[in-house]
Structures are given as structure tokens and as C-alpha cells.
Specification:
This protein has eight helices and eight strands. It binds S-adenosylmethionine.
């Protein structure tokens, strides 16, 4: 069944067709503050907390879920948080089309779809290639935060990060059950309420690391067509 699409009219919402490639975020925000990205913002509770805590940063919150983007915009408007913009867009497409390498001060990925079945593992968004791509888009010292309710996903991402030259773990263990001060998202709260721990990772792009060449592109077939057909 096709879900109905809500037309999002919020001033917080950015449409692909209105943006240059790459997008000029200094003009969009009206300042040159550092830009952070949340991938898979859901209903926007995490990004609203971050934006309120760090008013001197700009945030881009993206999701392929139309209703989630709408709820995120409504939440931000309600709270009067002007340092966030929202896009309904697929993460890999956003990076390659609208962002420039080295432009991000932080990337947040919270409770990405876990694809727990063995035959679906290759659908997970965060794999080694994607982490190499993210490294290109982080500025030197830029931070990557990942959280998951699925231990096996978090362990796999920790192992990938170990192999990607240029990331430095900021925690004393590869995975932790707590990052002090890190806001909780809707999914995190849901799993914690069920007594399930959340598994957190926190890395930085090494200040000395030089990313050679162009950012790698995903080789997954048809992801862009898949998401627009299947997500309301
Ligand atoms: C399990 S939900 C978690 C939502 C939120 N981060 C939270 O923790 O409450 C995962 C979200 O990621 C979005 N998503 C999945 N794949 C994506 C992709 N390739 N690009 C952008 N968003 C994606 C989904 O639409 C969904 O809203």
C-alpha cells in the first residue's frame, strides 16, 4: 500500500530542487557556523536537543521518511530552533550531490535500521565503504557518533572503523553503553524502557589524516529508486 505524502511547507524544510550542487549552507543559514549532519533523524527529537544545546552550530537533519521529516520540522518550529534544516533525502545521495568533502564538524547516526536477518545484513547503511565515505566529509578532528540497539551491528561498525585508516576511537572501549550528555532519541528511549542497552561509538577523524582522491561512491544497486518508492 502506498502511503500518503504530506507536503511539507515548513521554512525549516529544504527541497533538493531549490539547492545548488553542492549546496551553499552559509547562505542557507545566514552564517558560517560549523555544520553537523544527522542521518536518519526520525521524528527529530535528537536533533532538537542537539540544536538547543549547541546554538553556535548549524545542523542538517535528513531522513527518507516523509512523515518523520514533517514531524521534525514541526518540532523545530515549535521550539524556535533556527539552526536546523531538514531534508527528505537518502544519505549517500545527499553526500555526493550536496555536500563538499571536509565540510562536516560532526555526523550522528542513531539506531539505523538494523536489518537483523542474515540474508538482509548487506542492506545495513553503515558498512566499511560508507565509513570511508563519511571520513571524506568530516573535517579534520570532526566527530562521528553511532548508536544502535543491536549489539552485533555496533560490534560490526567498531570492527569496520578499526580497519578504516583515519578514524580514532574517543572512548576507552570500542563500544560503550553510555556517552555522558549525549541526547536520547525516540528509538533509544524505547529500547531503554524495555531494558535493552544502547551501544554507542564515538570516533574522530585524525587531524593529520589526508583523504586521498574522491569520496568512494556506494555500489549498492538502485538505492535511490528503492527509497523513493518505498518510503512515505
Ligand atoms: C530505526 S529509525 C531511527 C530513527 C531515529 N534516529 C531514532 O533513533 O529515533 C531509522 C531511520 O533512518 C531512516 N533511514 C534509513 N535509511 C536511510 C538512508 N539511507 N538515508 C536517510 N535516512 C535513512 C529511516 O527512514 C528511519 O527514519
Amino acid at each position: 500500500m502506498t502511503q500518503s505524502m504530506i507536503e511539507i511547507k515548513s521554512p525549516y524544510f529544504l527541497r533538493e530542487e531549490d539547492l545548488s550542487s553542492p549546496a551553499d549552507f552559509s547562505t542557507i543559514f545566514g552564517n558560517k557556523n560549523p555544520l553537523a549532519l544527522e542521518i536518519g533523524c526520525g521524528i527529530g527529537d535528537f536533533i532538537a536537543q542537539m540544536a538547543a544545546t549547541f546554538p553556535e552550530r548549524n545542523f542538517l537533519a535528513i531522513d527518507i521518511y516523509n512523515k518523520g521529516c514533517n514531524k521534525t520540522c514541526n518540532r523545530l518550529e515549535h521550539k524556535g530552533l533556527t539552526n536546523v534544516r531538514v531534508m527528505r533525502i537518502e544519505a549517500r545521495y545527499l553526500l555526493s550531490r550536496f555536500l563538499t568533502p571536509g565540510c562536516l564538524t560532526a555526523i550522528y547516526i542513531n539506531c539505523p535500521d538494523p536489518w537483523p536477518k542474515k540474508r538482509h545484513l548487506k542492506r545495513r547503511l553503515v558498512n566499511e565503504l560508507f565509513l570511508q565515505t563519511l571520513l571524506h566529509y568530516l573535517q579534520p578532528d570532526g566527530e562521528l557518533f553511532f548508536s544502535s540497539d543491536v549489539a552485533d551491528y555496533a560490534d560490526a561498525v567498531a570492527a569496520h572503523l578499526d580497519r578504516v585508516d583515519g578514524f580514532e576511537n574517543q572512548l576507552s572501549t570500542p563500544v560503550s553503553h553510555n556517552i555522558p550528555g549525549y541526547p536520547l532519541s525516540k528509538y533509544m528511549r524505547r529500547f531503554l524502557a524495555q531494558g535493552q542497552p544502547i551501544h554507542f561509538l564515538h570516533h574522530r577523524r585524525n587531524r593529520q589524516h589526508v583523504c586521498e582522491g574522491a569520496p568512494p561512491q556506494s555500489t549498492q544497486r538502485g538505492f535511490r529508486m528503492d527509497w523513493s518508492a518505498n518510503h512515505g
